[in-house]
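Quick start: read one record
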Amino acid sequence: MTDGDTESPVPGHRTKYARVERERRFLLAGMPAGAEAVGVRRIIDHYLTGTRLRLRRTTDVRSRACEYKLTQKVPAELPGPVQGLVTNMYLSRAEYELFASLPGAGLAKLRYSIPPFGVDVFAPPLNGLVLAEAEFGTGEEMRAFVPGIDVVAEVTTDRRFTGGRLVRTDRSELLSWLEGHGVEI
């Protein structure tokens, strides 16, 4: 590959503008006990119909500062430390509003920054769902990671707990999935 490209973990995709995503996700019964968030952001996601694109508006709860971005996530085809490739494009408010007018489905949550985690507490109809994510620079770091908080289950490879799937999930489905993990809300 040329022009600064590196070997891609996703066949047919280039890494020149995308970064490799390595993350682990954990289902929690609630907010981690005794944890203090160093920041809280309100996140509104709009998954554009028929694409792998996600439009995101992030608002810092304290400062009210907003950030707008368009993201493409391309999943890796093989299990392992790489979830796939992610490409972000930062947008102006006007650009965001234009993309927001396209058909899609929405998802809302609060993200608490509790290093090394981002802990997502979902809004209705997914209220009661709490997921923690940690990102890693290398596969070795990812494999060696021990959460250090009480987790119900690791759901890294469970596609039901990805934003692209959750946005299409109704309340009864969610309750069934949580019940399967012993979580009652």
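Residues 1-5 have pLDDT under 50 and may be disordered.
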